[in-house]
Amino acid sequence: MDTFLQQLVNGLTLGCVYAVVALGYTMVYGIIQLINFAHGEVVMIGAMVAFTVITALAGSGMPPLAIVLMSLLAAIPACMLVGYTVERVAYKPLRNAPRLAPLITAIGVSIILQHLALLIWGRNYITFPQIVPTQTFALTGSANSATITNIQIAIIVLSVAMMAGLIALVYRTRIGIAMRATSQNAGVAGLMGINVNNVISFTFLIGAALGAVAGVMIGSYYGQAYYQMGFLLGLKAFSAAVLGGIGNLGGAVLGGILIGLIEAFGAGYMGDITNVCTLNRFLPGFAGMCEANANASLLGSNYKEVYAFVILILVLRFRPSGLLGERVSDRA
Amino acid sequence: MKMSYKLVFAAMLAAGIVGCGKEEPKKVEPAKAAAPVEPSQVVKIAAAGPLTVKTPHLGKDNENGVALAIEHANAKKLKIGGKLIKFEMMSEDDQGDPKVGTTVAQKLIDAKVVAVIGHLNSGVSIPASEAYNKAGIPMVTGSATNPTLTERGLKTVFRTVARDDQQGPAVAAYIAGEMKAKKVALIDDKTAYGEGLANEVEKALKAAKVTITGRDRTTDTETDFKSILTKVKAKNPDVIFYGGMDQTAGPMIKQGRELGIKATFVFGDGACTEEMFVKAQDAANGLVCSQAGLPSQASSAEFLTAFKAKFGDVKQYAPTFYDATNAVIEAMKKADSVDPAKFAPEIFNVSFTGASGKIEFDAKGDRKDAEVTIFKLEGGKLVPVSIVKGGVATKFEMAAAPAAAVPAAAAPVSAAPAAAKPVEAPKK
Question: In the 8-state DSSP scheme, what is residue B293?
C-alpha cells in the first residue's frame, strides 16, 4: 500500500510537470495549428536562467523563497522574450505557408535554441544550489511509509494553480474569448474586430510563461539541468497533449498527468509483473529462466517511456483525436 | 521590416550560430618549437570521449591527461626513426554513444592517426576497437573496464585500468565483508559497462551467500529515479549497488534520500567522482564506490603538480590516460617507428613507471597487476579506504607508498570541482 501511494505521489508530481508543459503545446496548436517543437527548449531556458539567478543570489543572504521568487521573475520575462521572438521571426512569416514549413522551422528553432544554451551555459550538467532544504513528510504512519517532499507539494500546488488560472483566463476573460474565437476561425475572428496577430503573440507569451515556471520547477525538483533537457521533455509533453486531445486544455492536463502516472507505475510494477518466476506460474516456457536467475524480468523499469508511448498508440488507435478531443470533421 | 531583410538576418544568425556551435571539437595542441632544420614529422594521436553530453566533465578530464602527455613528450624533443617527432592531439567527441563512437572511429582512421587513446565508455570502446583493429591502429583506454574489451583476441586493444571482473569481486567483497550487508539490491543503466559491472557484483555476492533482493534496470539518460527506487525500497535492502555513471548516480542517490531510503549506496568507478557531491550534496555523503586503479591522490607528484598547474584538479582517470598515451610513445621509441604496424606489437613489451604506477601489459592487453581502490565519500571528498590487488585487500594509508613503485603523492587532492556553491540554509 505504501509503495502504491509513493508511486502515486511520484507519478502525480511528474505528471503535473508534463501537464504544465503540455498546456503550452496545446494552446499554440489550438490557435494556429502548429506544433511548437521549440517549446521544450523554452522550458530549458527557463531552468537555465533560473539557475543563473539562483547562483548569483545564493550567497547574498536573502531568504530562500525570495531567491526562488526572483528566479521566477527573471525566468518568466526571459522565456516570454524567447517565445515572442521565435514567433515573430520564425512562425509569423509562414502563417500562410503549407503546414509542413512551420513544422520544420520549429524543429530548426529547437536546435538553434539548444546550441545557444550550449554556448551560454556550457556543455556540462549544471547543478542547482540547494537553497531550500528538502523536508520530507510521511504520508502514513508505518515505518516504510510513503513520503512526499515540500518541493513535490509545491510543484503539485503550483501546477494546479496555473492550470486553474489558465482555464479561468481562457473561459472568463475578454482576451480568452478572443483566443477561443481565433482558434475556431481566425479569418472570421479578424472580421469581428479581433487583432489576430496580437492574440497569437499573446498565446505564445502565456505558453512561454508557463514553460518558464515548468523549467524552474524541474530545476528545483531534480536539482540539475542541461542544454539538451528540453528535447525529451518536449517530446513527452507533446505526446501528453496528443493523448488528451490536442487543442483541448483539459485534455493536456489529463494527458500530462496520465503519462506521469503511467511512467511511475510502469517503472514500479512492470518489472514485478513480468518477472520470469511470476510468469512461470502462468505461462509455459519460463522454468529454465526462473532457475537461472530469479530476479530477471522480461520488461524492466528502463522501458518506462515505452509504456507511456504504447498507451498513447493504443488510445490513438481507438480515439484518434485523443481522450477529450472532439471529433472534428475536416473543414470543407 | 521587409520580409527579405528578416530572412537574410535570420539566415545569418542561423549560420553564425550553427557555425560556432556544437561541432566535434578538434583540439590541436601546438608542440614546442622544433628545430626547423632537422627532418621532422607530425604524428597525430587521437583522444576520444564524450565531450558534450552524458559525462563531459570526465571526457574532458581524460582529454587533458592525453594533452599533458603529448605536451611533455614534445618538450622532450624525441627522435624516432631518425626524425624529430612533433606530436599532435586530435580530439573527437563520441557523445558516450556507441553509434557515434563507430562514426568517430572511422573519422579518426581516415585522418590517419597512429593511435587512439580512449574511449571513455566500455560500450563505445568495444565496437570502436573493432574498426581500429581492422585498420591496424592501436587503441589504449584509460577507463573502459568491461572484460569483453580484451577478450576477443584483438592484438591492438589495451587498457591501463583494471577490469570489471577484478572490480566487481573487489566491491562485492567489501559489501559482504566490511559492510556485512545481508540484503543487496542491484540497479544498472543497461550500458555495456553498467550492466557488466552489476553482473560481476551479483555473481560475487551470490557466491558470498548474500541475498539479492532484486535486479532493476534504468537508462543512462534517465533523470527521475523515484519510481524505481520506490520499488527497491519496498524490499528493504541494506545496500543498493548501482552500475552506471555519475550523471545518473548523483540524482539517484539524492532522490533515494528524499524517499527516505536508509540503505548505503555503493557505486562502481563510473560514479566514483567528487561530482557526486556536487550533484547530491549531503545525500552523497556516506556512499561507497570503487575505482579501477590507484586513487588519483596516489599518482606521482610530478604528474599532479603539472596537471594542477595546467588543468586544475584531476577528476578521475586523467592519470591513466596520461599513462596510456605514454605507453604508445614508449612503444614508438622501442620500435623506433611511428608506423602503427611496427609499434603496436611493441606495446606488449613496454615497461615504465607512469603517473598511476608501473605500466606493463599482459598477453590480452590488460594492465598487469592492476589495482582496485574502494573509496568512501565523506564531507564531500573521496577518501580511499582500501586497495585491492590480486584479490587481497589492504587498508589504504596515505603516508606509505601504495602497492606500486610510485612515490606516494603528498599533495592531497583539493576540494570538489566547479559548479554551484554557496549554500546558506542547512541542507537535507
Answer: S
